[in-house]
Amino acid sequence: MVAVGILAMLLAAGGVWMLGFHPAALAAATHGYDAALTDARELAQSGGNGATLVFAPRAEGLAGFVLRVYAGRPNAPGAVSATTAMPLVADASVREATLGAPPFALFVGASGHVSGLADYPALATDGTATFTPLAGEPACPPAGYTLTFTSPQGVRATRTLPCTPVGFAPVGAALPNPSPTPNVPIVTPTTLIYHWPADAEQQFVATEWGYTHWFASTSGLRCGVGVASYPNVLPAPYAPPYDAAEGAATPAPPSGEPFSYPNSAGASMNDAPARFRLDPAAAGLCAATVSDAFGQRASALVQVMGWLTAGYGGKSYTHAGAPLTIAPNAFPRAGSAVAIALAKTYDAEALVPLVAFDAACAPLMRASATSGTTPSTPGATPATATLTLTLIRAPGSPVTCGGTIYDQYPNALLGEGIAFNAAFGSGPLELWPPAVQYPLAGKSLPNCAVNQPKAYDGKGWAAADILRGGSSSAYFPSGTALASNGYGCLFTGSAGTTPVDMSTDQSVVAYRAGGTGTFTISGNGCLHALQPPTSPWKPVTGAEPGPVGYKVAGAQPTTGCSYQFGDTASTSPATEAAQVIEAPCTLLGTANNAQGISFSTYYLPPGASCTFPNAIYAVAVTCSGDPVSSVTPGHTAAAFVKDIAATNPTSGWSMTQTIPGSPANPGAGSMTITRTSGTGTITLDLQYTDLTAATGVFGCKDKLNGTTVLEGLAFTG
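Given the sequence above, the corresponding structure tokens read:
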């Protein structure tokens, strides 16, 4: 409350500072008024005798007004005192609909009730105010107060101020008022909101200007049909009279009804509060109505929200019941999710589910929420939402863990949280990668080392890890990583930099959450000599995956391979797809030479050979350039291999060719390029004979030089 008051004073001070820049005169006046009113209300609630706002003219006839905040109301000599709140000095003018132009005053009570008086207080030339005591509180106009602020340019803004706080509504017909003042009782706050039926006790106060006798409940110890109740302290009042004479005055409070006397702890009694306590009991709405000794009534609306309720498996769970138990098979694997429906009656706010996991569940699960329906008014139709619990990592062994489901209200975790638990047993057997591509023994796949396999994730041969919730790599129990690079080539080692060798290294990670025993392996026979590594397989214990080794020797290229992994604790295996490919030469791309004849570039790994049949002489040709004339495709051109040209290094490359007949009539033949070592590029130039005399040849004719056309066939290592 003090912090709010300080903030209000700072805002008021900021309003004065901003007025030095004049363009924002209207905004500064309205903002400064808002801050001053907030400050006055805080003073009224904390000081016991309300607060006073004084609107005064500016000195020396300047346009605008000065607004000051005072503590107390003028109900006795010296009852009003200055505060440290900075005054608002406004260039804009102000006028109230019934009070007119400054000077005038507004009086704010502890309950929020407001009244006002024109031509008050008396002001000296230096602005000093003299507050003549008032015999009674001035009447508030039925429509309240409307203040109109006008800028020097004529732009207007208004602020309205009701007599009583927004939401106040007397319950029942008011009886004739025999009080010497025309005042009626006021209840503050006007609404008590409890967030569940066992929420903490709250209190409200009844006030009435100039009234010092008791207030009493009109419904006994209950509010509504068991919605809330007054703690039974009878025959004592909740707040005692301020002196013994008041306690002995007639009429006496009604017997059997909760009652309370106004008491301001030694401060002014003109608007002293009579305090009542109220406990929630059941979900619903009711009006806590109190009456003064003259039969005048005032009420506070009481809203008790229902318990947070979770629906799962056809049952409902609340804080007061047994924990919500999730079925053991609800989370068979990482990524499995369970949806829990949440509801809360007599709640007109959007329901926001929250979860506190215990230490065992925290690393395994995550929670997400989806909003549902939110009623416009509190009632039996609940606010709803859905909470989704997702398993992000299977536990290492069978475990039962849980947590508490709650909502956004203060202390809901302990006050209305719903306990839940989940049991995790042996999860499914998981593999990474889900498929593997192998080269022939002693060979290599494009962009991979000799004997290095590739990982496949179902989308391409550049797999990301999909084991154990999508981590960046799969780990062996020793801490060694198994991962793939951008080409899908498998690597191992602590940094994932050592190529996997299919003849000696493990290439697959098998994992079962909560499993026990050792791994087993079987295949369909397409992979020769498939076997585990020489060291024993890692038992499936805890959260540690087990490495699976293999050796491929003498296999032929195939795409129909698969083998299965299991463990001795389960009969549900996981299938690993595989293929063995020769792939000694991989087409990297095609291009056209200057004569418009296509040529191709192949990747040739170390230790591999590429054999090309005589179709090499029937390469697809696209004619382009100017001037160019095409020739009829579909025939073998008269050609021979002219030479071999290679870039550094050239060692380790060789070529053999078989071309029967003569260069003028090559017929069928073949050509083999072999790379045993070295790196670089080897380019073959195929020289075609004179195309000017050829008919039906497969090529293009250069009109400017029709004697020779070269086609490049490059091999890159």
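Residues 25-47 form the longest helix (23 residues). Try to locate this feature in the token string yourself.
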